[in-house]
Structures are given as C-alpha cells and as structure tokens.
Amino acid sequence: MIPNHAHFLDAIRQKRFVRVGFYSLPDGGTVDRECTPLDYGPAAGTTGAPNRYWVWDPAATAGVNPLGLLPDQIVTLQALGKDFDPAALPLGAGPWLVPRDWGTPTKASAPSDSAPTP
C-alpha cells in the first residue's frame, strides 16, 4: 500500500479526482495525471494477482484505461477538491472491491489486468 492509501479510498467514496504521479515504462519515467479513482484490488477474474490502484485517465493520455498501478509504481498521490460524475464513466457497476455509493450504473464492466508494466 502507498502512504496515502486512505486518501485514495476516501476519494473513491467522495467522488473526487486524484492527482497521481507514477512511473511509466512507456514514457521512460514519472508522469503526472489527474485521474478518477476507481478501485483498489486485483484485476477482476484473477487469482493470486497483486493489488493495484485502479484509475481512469479522462484525457486518455497515459495509454490504456483503466490504469492498474502497482503500489511501487506510484510516486505521489493527492486527493483533489474536484468532483467527478460516476455516471459519465464508461464502466458501470464493477464488481467493485471498495464499497461506495455511486448510484445506478448505465453499463456493467470491471477493470481488467491491462495495466502498464512497471
């Protein structure tokens, strides 16, 4: 887990954006993105997979969406005072591991293990 783990979980529940700095192998260094926090846990349908911080990059500037970041990839994480609308996300109901009240989804989907390689 990262030091700001609780802030990440709070941002999910409060529907607040996060700013995350993470090591990106394709970019060859650390990148900084404003993202929607989605979940914390292993990829859906996997067993024995490591827990990841799942985020959505609204600008899709970081490559695949959602991003599944391993804790050792994350350099900084800050919860922002900016709200997001879960209904605007092209995801749906999950299944989510972190409890939240995001209302009724429009379509069901879950993060897959298509995360960038550390």
Spans of at least 5 consecutive residues whose pLDDT stays below 50 are 106-110, 112-118
What count of domains describes the coordinates?
A: 1
Taken in chain order, the helices and strands follow as HEEEEE
Share of helix, binned = under 10%
Major sheet details: 5 strands, antiparallel
Total beta strand runs: 5
Cα-based radius of gyration, to the nearest Å: 13 Å
CATH-derived topology:
SH3 type barrels
**What spatial order of strands do you see in the largest sheet?**
4-3-2-1-5
CATH architecture: Roll
Please outline the helices and strands:
Layout: H1 5-14, E1 16-24, E2 29-41, E3 52-56, E4 67-69, E5 74-83
Antiparallel strand pairs: 1-2, 1-5, 2-3, 3-4
